[in-house]
Amino acid sequence: MTPPAVLAAARRCRADRLTELRAWLAIPSVSSDPARAADVAGAARWLASWQRAHGASVAIRPTAGGRDVVLGHWSAPPGAPLVVIYGHYDVQPAGPGWSADPFTPVVRAGVLYARGAGDDKGQLFAHLCALDAWRRAGTPPARVLVIAEGAEEVGSPGFDAVLRRLARRIRPRAVVVSDTERDDDGTPTVTVSQRGHLVARLEVDTCGPEVHPGRLGGAVVDPGLVLAEALLTLRDHLLPGLATHPADADGVRPRIRTDAAVARAAGGRATTGPGLDERITRCGALGVTWLAAGGRRGAVPARSAARIDVRLPPQADPASVLHRARRLLDGLAPRGATVRLRLAAATPGLETTPDPATRRAAAEACVAGFGRPPTYLRSGGTIPAAGMMSRAFGIRPLLLGFGTPGGRAHGPDEAMDLPGWAAAIDTSVALLAALARPIGADGVSAQRQINHHGRANLFAPALAWRALTGEE
Length: 472
Hints:
This protein is of the alpha+beta class and 472 residues long. The protein has helices spanning 4-12, 14-25, 37-53, 121-137, 159-167, 213-216, 223-238, 259-265, 276-281, 318-329, 356-370, 384-393, 418-435, 446-452, 461-469, and strands at 57-61, 69-74, 82-88, 106-108, 111-113, 143-149, 174-177, 189-194, 196-205, 285-293, 303-312, 338-347, 350-351, 375-378, 398-401, 415-417. The protein has two domains: 4-193 and 349-469, Zn peptidases (Aminopeptidase, 3-Layer(aba) Sandwich), CATH 3.40.630; 196-258 and 271-347, Alpha-Beta Plaits. Strand 4 (106-108) and strand 5 form a beta hairpin.
C-alpha cells in the first residue's frame, strides 16, 4: 500500500517539478552533434545538481564515448533492497516541422511540447519526482541507484564498461527502464521483447572514373544497378531466414496490435500486407535509411552506397546474420567491381518479460497511478542499454513505458501529456513501495538474499555509496 502522505507530497510539488523539467528540456543535449557537446555535458551537470539538491549522493562517470554517466544514489533504511532506474538525458536533433522552438518548452492544452519531453527526460524525471516525494515524506522504501547516460541516441558507446564495473559491486532487486510509450488507450506498457539491430554500409565500387553515358553506357558496370541487386538479394534471401516464433514467457500473452493500429502509427504510409504486428516484433526487416549513386548529372557514376538498418528477431545472433549477409553478397560483383558490407553497429535482441514478483509490483503500481494494470506488448525497437544492463546484472529489466501514445519521439512536436506525466509520478511512487516488499517463499527481503549470495552488506549509507561507485 502506498502511503497517502507520499502521493500528497508529489502532488503538492508538481508545479515546481514541471518548472524544473522545462528548464532541463531547454538544454539542447543532442548527442549526435559534436557542436552540442557542451550542452550534453550541461544536461549531465543539471541532473547531478538536481539530485544532490534533493538528497541524493551523486557521482559522474566519464565514458570512452566522451559523454558522462550520472549515478544518483538515494538511500533507504537498513535492509532495503536495491532498485536501479535507468534513463538517458541526451536527445535527437530537432529536425524540421516544429510548430515552435523545440528547445523552448511550451504547454498547450495540457500537453508539454519539447525535444526530450517523452524521450527520455520527461519519463526519467517522473521517477526522480517520485524519489523526491518519498524523501519529503520520510525516506524511500528501497535504495535506488539512478543511472542516466548521455549517449543512448547514438548507441550507448562506453556505457557497457561503466555497467560492468558497477556489476562487480551490486546485485539489484529490479532494473526499471522507462523509455517507451504507453498503449493507445493510455495504459502503461510493459515491453516483453525487443528486436536486435544491425547497421551497416553497403558499398559498390567499379574502380574507375565517371563516364559519359552515351559514349560508354552499356560497356561499363553501373554501380547503382549492382547496389539495387545487392539490396534485393538481402531482402529475398536474408530476411526469410530470420523469422522466429518464441514462446510467451511465464504464461504472459502480449497483446497483438491490429493491422489498422499499426497502419495508423505509420502515419498513412503504405504498409506491406497482413500480420503487421508479427512483422514488426518477431520478424527481420531490412530498411534503407540512406542511398547515393553518382556525383554529377549526365554521367554514369563509379560508386554507389546505401546505409541499411536490419532489425533482427529477439533470438537472432547479429554476428551470424552479418556473416550470412556477406556470404550472400560474395560473387555478386561483376568482374572488376567490388561489393562490400561494412558493419557500423550491432545490438542483439532481448526477451524482457520480468519475473513474476516484478510483474505483480508493476501491476499494483499502474493500478495506483493509472487506475488499471499495464498492457504487455512486444516491441520492434531496440534499446541497446536494456540489453547491456540485462547482461551486466543478470536480470531482465522492467521496460515500463510512460510516454504519451503517439508522442512523436524523434519527430517534430515531441510531446508529453501532463495528466499522463502526473500519473507516471504516482505510479513510480507506488512501484518503489511494491518492489521494496519481501520476496521469496521464506519472506527474506531482496537485499538479504543478495547478502546471502556473497555480496557485501550495504546498509550504511556511506558504505553503500563507496560500494556502488568504487570511491574511497
